Amino acid sequence: MQGTIFIAAPPGTTWPLSLDDVEQQLRQRLPGVRTFHRHAAVSNTDYIDFQVTVDGLLSISSYFAGGTLILRDGSAADWADTIEWFLGLLPPGTPAVAMIEENPDEIVPVPLDATAAAIEALLDALAGINE
Known about the structure:
Blueprint: E1 3-8, H1 19-29, E2 34-40, E3 45-54, E4 57-64, E5 68-74, H2 76-88, E6 97-100, E7 103-109, H3 116-127
Antiparallel strand pairs: 1-5, 1-6, 2-3, 3-4, 4-5, 6-7
Helix pairs in contact: 2-3
């Protein structure tokens, strides 16, 4: 799967991670990351775009205030450890759901304390890989 992965707070909930907190954590985890504060006028939501290299290519991904992480241009294997790390920034027991661009009709919960391997398997199952 190469495409876009969405990890988000379930409907009706939000995550307690501010844009500044996420930016600081990204800088610690990914030295050299470039971040840009943005505003989505249509949804009136602030977010951060961040540029990283994924599998040798530049990728611009995003975190939206309140709880949506969008990871672009990578496979489940490319992003699974980053998702595990990111979810570890949340308070224990904080729920998350996952969706992929190729299968937008299926939104599934991410198990609490999911490992990178479990996250990769969940995303691959959404993409129909190894079924």
